[in-house]
Amino acid sequence: MQYISTRNANIGMSAAEVIAMGLAHDGGLFVPEALPALKKNAVAALAAMGYQQRAVYIMSMFLDGYSIEELTDIAEKAYNTNNFDTPEIAPLHSIDETASFLELWHGPTCAFKDMALQALPHFLTSALIKTGEEREVCILTATSGDTGKAALEGFCDVDRTKIMVFFPKDGVSDIQKLQMTSQKGDNVFVCSVVGNFDDAQTGVKQIFSDEKLREQLSEKGYFLSSANSINWGRLLPQIVYYVSAYCDLINKGTIKNGDPINICVPTGNFGNILAGFYAKSIGLPINKLICASNSNNVLTDFIKTGTYDKNRDFYTTTSPSMDILVSSNLERLLFELSGHDDGLIRKYMDSLNATGAYTVNEIIRNAIQKDFVAGFCDDKQTAETIKDVFFKHNYLIDTHTAVGYKVYRDYVSETGDKTHTVIASTASPFKFCEAVLAALGRNYKLPGLELIEKLEEVSGVKAPTPLTSLKDQKERFTQSVNKEEMTNVVVNFLIN
Ligand SMILES: *Cc1c(COP(=O)(O)O)cnc(C)c1O
């Protein structure tokens, strides 16, 4: 199977090449040239397997050039009970006949990005060998919180990789900061940047476009890559858990093999829900993909009207990982639904760059509306939903998951659809203690670590160990720099 770019459908590249490269040189995203299909009895067979084997099966459908032994090794390294606090890896929690939460936060950083970032570094190490790349890769990341820690955990002590994370000094929570500054590993570096997320992000972008630095690093045997990037190796592991959830629903007797389900995803960069679309495209019986946004509802408007317009107010919400106005992965969906029309995609993306907006043609709009429905919910409704689910179903959810559930409930009220719906639960509620406690009617002004204990008390739920054990961790990285100094930090870490 070859891969092509959303902005050039004629380049044929191998899976290893696109994983090593991340982003195409033309600025587009890599996608498979043709999608594989689940064989007739595949789901029944997968239902009898554990998560690792399911992952090997699905990933092998997309990764020519990676042997089954190699993929088995990667799945074992990524999805085991040292990294995850349950052997199920991504368990389902059903609250009634029609709705289940797919808990994607049992990994080392308690958010769903672990599902991909525990696997990606191993794909990358293999890709370096396969493509004959002799240099080491250094992952450079600016983070507003969750991605940085998930990338650090994923790349920690992985062969032939180094990772550097820059976070805004005043832009992350106490817990997020300590999660990163206490990171273990010989190949990691963490540094704060004076300013906000944009300052850190701008600094990282400047480093990536610095030709001189690139040569200097190359001579020393390094090249830079990104974990923020929309690497195919980050998307592929996410297809697995939708297939896995379907298998679990069969095993629980909730559905019969062949019955349709809906999937509802709290969405930011459109990666997680796009993986659901790919699961449907390879033949998993998915009826509707429900796209849930917070007050930054650019995707809701797009799916309803066909016009994407980022010219609007930006809101800081209680679901910060979804505070995004440009959802990069949408480009892949448009490419798929346009029948791989790279010229058309270039036109839309040029328009997005020039004016901040584009309108898709009727064919694409109709295709989107056939598969997707969309809705959004504000912070007040998010809080009400957390409270409601806790008291009605005795189940504690985080702010992002609450956005998903609220939008799902609205969809059911409007349509009466009784199809069993899997709601992606993207973070542990203990990662967002302050907002979750407030939703339960408890307002505290306390340091982050103390809030974890408060939420345990109030909810009667035990917090995940990676978060409670933070109180015994020491800060390892204390450096803080202005964004102009970031290049020096990179040089010092890699060369001096
Ligand atoms: C990243 C993130 C999201 C958004 O996922 P996308 O793939 O960007 O749509 C939702 N919830 C949480 C907790 C996240 O960390």
Please tell me about this protein's structure.
- The chain has a domain at 88-113 and 235-431: Rossmann fold (3-Layer(aba) Sandwich).
- It contains 22 helices and 16 strands.
- The protein has helices spanning 15-21, 42-47, 51-62, 68-78, 113-117, 120-130, 146-155, 174-181, 197-208, 211-219, 232-252, 271-281, 298-305, 330-337, 342-355, 362-371, 379-393, 399-415, 433-439, 448-459, 465-468, 486-494; strands at residues 3-5, 8-13, 30-32, 92-94, 99-103, 136-142, 161-168, 188-193, 222-225, 261-266, 286-293, 307-309, 357-359, 372-376, 421-425, 480-481.
- Strand 4 (92-94) and strand 5 (99-103) form a beta hairpin.
- Helix 1 crosses helix 6 (120-130), helix 3 (51-62) crosses helix 11 (232-252) and helix 11 packs across helix 12.
Instruction: Kindly name the structural category.
Output: alpha/beta
Number of helices: 22
State the distance separating the first and last CA atoms: 42 Å
Q: Identify the bound ligands.
A: pyridoxal-5'-phosphate
Q: List low-confidence stretches.
A: none
Instruction: Please report the total strand number as a whole number.
Output: 16
Strand proportion: 15-25%
CATH class of the domain at 88-113 and 235-431: Alpha Beta
Radius of gyration: 22 Å
**Residues in helices, as a percent range:** 40-55%
Shape: globular
**Lateral arrangement of strands in the main beta sheet:** 4-5-15-10-11-14
CATH topology name of the domain at 88-113 and 235-431, in short, is Rossmann fold
CATH architecture of the domain at 88-113 and 235-431: 3-Layer(aba) Sandwich
Q: What is the averaged pLDDT score?
A: 95
